[in-house]
Amino acid sequence: MREHRLPEWNLLVSTPRNREAAASSEVVYFIGDLIGDDALETNVTPVSGLLAVKTSKDPFKVVEQLKEFAKENPYQFRYAIRFTPMERCVESDIPKIVDAAEPLVKRIGPEEKFRVTVRSRYTELGTMDIIDAVAKLVSSPVDLETPDKIIWIEVVGKWTGVSIFESEDDILSIKPLIEDEE
């Protein structure tokens, strides 16, 4: 597990605070061993409870495979509890975030509704400043409640990940799976 080297991550993994080492071991098991990613890298971020992961596989497919495994084995996920796929990773700078989002937003059709969701940690960038800058790239209508596409932006200190989601179901969250079991 490396520290603070984030420029190539394509998957964010949330964990309880101060459980990053245990979560990293789980990620290596789930993605490295079960899915077969021999080039997997896990990185500690400056944010307690957050790992940056670089998988050589498609991060959306990795999340889908993990969902299938988690449906049958939700209690295997003790520390790695949320997996968010990222398509682009850039420095936390609004023009660079806009540049990273620009090719992705072309996947939003003219009739599709969209929203921009920003999760930011350890940054002075304003959430609304990011939203305004990225939303200007899209001429489709905004719908905060039931969008067809979500421009998902994760700011983690000096680095930012950008993705386009069909829905928040593109993220694997273990807690609802465990609650469904009870």
What are its keywords?
single chain, 182 residues, alpha+beta, Alpha-Beta Plaits, VC0802-like, 2 domains, 4-stranded mixed beta sheet, 32% helix
How is this structure best described in words?
The chain is α+β, with helices and mostly antiparallel strands and 182 residues long. It folds into 2 domains: 2-86 and 169-181, Alpha-Beta Plaits (2-Layer Sandwich); 88-165, VC0802-like (2-Layer Sandwich), CATH 3.30.2130.30. 32% of the residues lie in helices and 26% in strands. The chain contains 5 helices and 10 strands, in the order E-E-H-E-E-H-E-E-H-E-H-E-E-E-H. It has helices spanning 20-34, 59-72, 94-105, 127-135, 174-181; strands at residues 2-3, 11-14, 41-44, 50-54, 82-85, 88-91, 114-121, 149-156, 159-165, 172-173. The strands form 2 sheets. The chain has a 6-stranded mixed beta sheet. It has a 4-stranded mixed beta sheet with strand order 6-9-8-7, covered by helices on one side. Helix 3 runs parallel beside helix 4 (127-135). The longest helix is centred in the N-terminal third of the chain and has 15 residues, at 20-34. It is globular and about 45 Å long.
Brief write-up:
With 182 residues, this protein is of the alpha+beta class. 32% of the residues lie in helices and 26% in strands.
Sequence-ordered SSE layout with sheet pairings:
Elements (H helix, E strand, L loop, with lengths): L1 E2 L7 E4 L5 H15 L6 E4 L5 E5 L4 H14 L9 E4 L2 E4 L2 H12 L8 E8 L5 H9 L13 E8 L2 E7 L6 E2 H8 L1
Parallel strand pairs: 1-3, 7-8
Antiparallel strand pairs: 2-4, 2-5, 3-4, 5-10, 6-9, 8-9
